[in-house]
């Protein structure tokens, strides 16, 4: 259907929610014409109306008269993914089938139980999502610059892996090859356990008084932002990665027990020196420092320490525009920005991150233009 | 020393680190002339050089020839705060003494043991801080719009409370009255437990491979941002609030044990239905939803749902300037902004929050100016 240096395979997308519809939009932008399928006629026609591809037959209905797929992308909820993948592998003996579920081991386990031909199956996981769901929230740039994990093993046909990776690159992703176990262990630590921790911390706020919760600052806001996530989807994800999440969570719980023990020693021995207790607390914070430093910086590079320039910004239209115009005129590239709003006051502080060498020139430029700042 | 509708008391600041020096800068901006004291001549003269006030005698040295304070603000590390407060109460029988430690019960407990005259002591806690420490990081706007907790009881002189609150308002804070126990329970939930959770989650990243940690997205970055905090200071804070932190942490640990149990049921019964296990997981996420919704929105108002407009922004100087100029020209007030950088790609996505009624007009305005966006 498309031409170019890397011709795209004929793709069928099964499941036209946020991820499936976004893949459709991105593939059409890349010149392909994907076929859309869903259990729900409303969901598949909505995705078509939004420009994600052309309508195939409703899932489970006769598909005569439609071009046979080279690649089937199963983007259904994780619970029904194995059955849909197995069915696609049987229906189209020449096709590669992939899925996009955020757990990989349990899908493979179920496919083995279902007797599916695994040499044409390539599990994958685009590391992208939104706080909203459904085709209506889809966007063609959802995957741009994001990792797309591809899980193959020695039994997987090389041509199948190549088809999946071609599509991953076509939608703008960066391919990362991991085994299913490596994938599941990684997402347990970088995604599933952080989600549970955010939820458990947020739940502690529920019984607080208005006065108490009014003391919440930026720290707890950051820690609990993802606690607004959907319980239904997360129950499927956590249940599907139970082993890996349990392993990471148990290690966290063991350290937590040590911290609670140290706090008990300090609490009951308020006037004594509670030997060893402070070392446990200091170690917990220091280990967190070490782990935090492992997170890569922007653009996938090694962690970078940016310099911070803080600017007082009135909370009215045009003030941030004026600030950014002034930064742009100074010829300085802004690396990151955090807006910090005051409590009950009509202004905030914009914390502007720049490469360290640019901080001095930026401060000079902003002061010369009348901004109030403090380094 | 100063005039105006609310004359400021003569303030001595003992301890010229980040908080003490920032109070000095803010009070000078408000027209007062605070006296600075520290154990370290370097620390107090640096704060003086930065404009935080005028030099008093070095802490512990003779203070003849200096005006007697109306209010002493003790801004030392929490560990030595009670001894410094008790000494100030003895030295100046007409003065009010406050401290700014982020724990309140243990300070009061120690003052009782030291036999200090508590009617002139008012514990307080300005809810402000930075990721950097020392006078060099001080800024006069550090407290603007932030809560300043004031802890008084029936034994406290009303005039003493009034002096502390006048200074809190003078530096731009919003006064919040709590008892020491209420304060300590509140900060355990909104600050100390989130800090420990962030540290414990971040520590789980330490042993990961480069590939695994490369999958880190915005979620884990937000959850672990404060894991970069200082172990020495946090050991003092956690040890000083051991009882309240232990209580919140134990409740978290109990729910965590339930989650681990549910995951074990699901892990060992991979092919069975593990009765009740999914309900435990769904409840953990749903309880997090409920707690998260308690966090007040910006400006201390009730939580507000803003509409999100996402814009693709090239990663070069001037692009954000152009975006903000266009938003400003559209006459629309930006409520919040999050920059989301792609992995290995030369652009990012700016997620712009506006009041819901402004989202449509903003999208129209940005599309008309050639921006690529998706709602």
Automatic annotation (TrEMBL), chains A, B:
Where the record annotates domain Prephenate/arogenate dehydrogenase, the positions are: 9-297
> Which Pfam families has this protein been placed in?
PDH_C, PDH_N
Question: Keyword annotations for this protein?
Answer: Amino-acid biosynthesis, Aromatic amino acid biosynthesis, Oxidoreductase
Entry GO MF terms: NAD+ binding; prephenate dehydrogenase (NAD+) activity; prephenate dehydrogenase (NADP+) activity
- From the UniProt record, give one GO term of the biological process aspect: tyrosine biosynthetic process
TM stretches of this protein: none
Pathway-wise, it operates in: Amino-acid biosynthesis
Annotated family: Belongs to the prephenate/arogenate dehydrogenase family.
PANTHER family for the chain: PREPHENATE DEHYDROGENASE, PREPHENATE DEHYDROGENASE [NADP(+)]
Protein name as catalogued: Prephenate dehydrogenase
| UniProt source species | Janibacter melonis
């Amino acid at each position: 259907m498309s031409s170019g240096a890397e011709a795209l395979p004929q793709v069928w997308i099964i499941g036209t929610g946020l991820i499936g519809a976004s893949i459709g939009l991105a593939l059409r932008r890349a010149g392909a014409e994907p076929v859309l399928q869903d259990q729900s006629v409303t969901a598949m026609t909505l995705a078509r109306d939004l420009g994600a591809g052309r309508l195939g037959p409703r899932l489970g209905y006769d598909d005569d008269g439609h071009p046979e797929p080279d690649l089937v992308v199963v983007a259904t909820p994780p619970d029904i993914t194995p059955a849909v993948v197995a069915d696609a592998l049987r229906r189209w003996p020449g096709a590669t089938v992939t899925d996009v579920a955020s757990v990989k081991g349990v899908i493979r386990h179920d496919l083995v139980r279902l007797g599916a031909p695994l040499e044409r199956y390539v599990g994958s996981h685009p590391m992208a999502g939104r706080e909203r769901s459904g085709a209506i929230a889809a966007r063609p740039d959802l995957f741009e610059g994001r990792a797309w994990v591809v899980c193959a093993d020695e039994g997987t046909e090389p041509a199948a892996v190549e088809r999946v990776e071609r599509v991953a690159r076509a939608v703008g992703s960066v391919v990362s090859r991991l085994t299913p176990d490596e994938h599941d262990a990684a997402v347990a630590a970088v995604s599933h356990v952080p989600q549970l921790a955010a939820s458990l911390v947020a739940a502690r706020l529920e019984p607080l008084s208005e006065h108490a919760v009014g003391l919440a600052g930026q720290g707890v806001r950051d820690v609990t932002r993802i606690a607004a996530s959907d319980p239904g989807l997360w129950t499927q994800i956590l249940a599907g990665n139970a082993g890996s999440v349990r392993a990471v969570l148990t290690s966290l719980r063991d350290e937590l027990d040590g911290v609670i023990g140290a706090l008990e020693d300090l609490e009951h021995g308020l006037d004594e020196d509670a030997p060893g207790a402070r070392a446990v607390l200091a170690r917990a914070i220091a280990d967190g420092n070490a782990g935090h430093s492992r997170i890569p910086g922007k653009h996938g590079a090694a962690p970078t320490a940016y310099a911070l320039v803080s600017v007082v910004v009135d909370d009215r239209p045009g003030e941030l525009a004026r600030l950014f115009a002034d930064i742009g005129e100074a010829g300085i590239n802004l690396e990151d920005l955090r807006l910090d709003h005051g409590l009950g006051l009509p202004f905030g502080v914009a914390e502007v991150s720049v490469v360290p060498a640019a901080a001095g020139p930026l401060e000079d430029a902003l002061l010369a233009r009348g901004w109030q700042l403090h380094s």
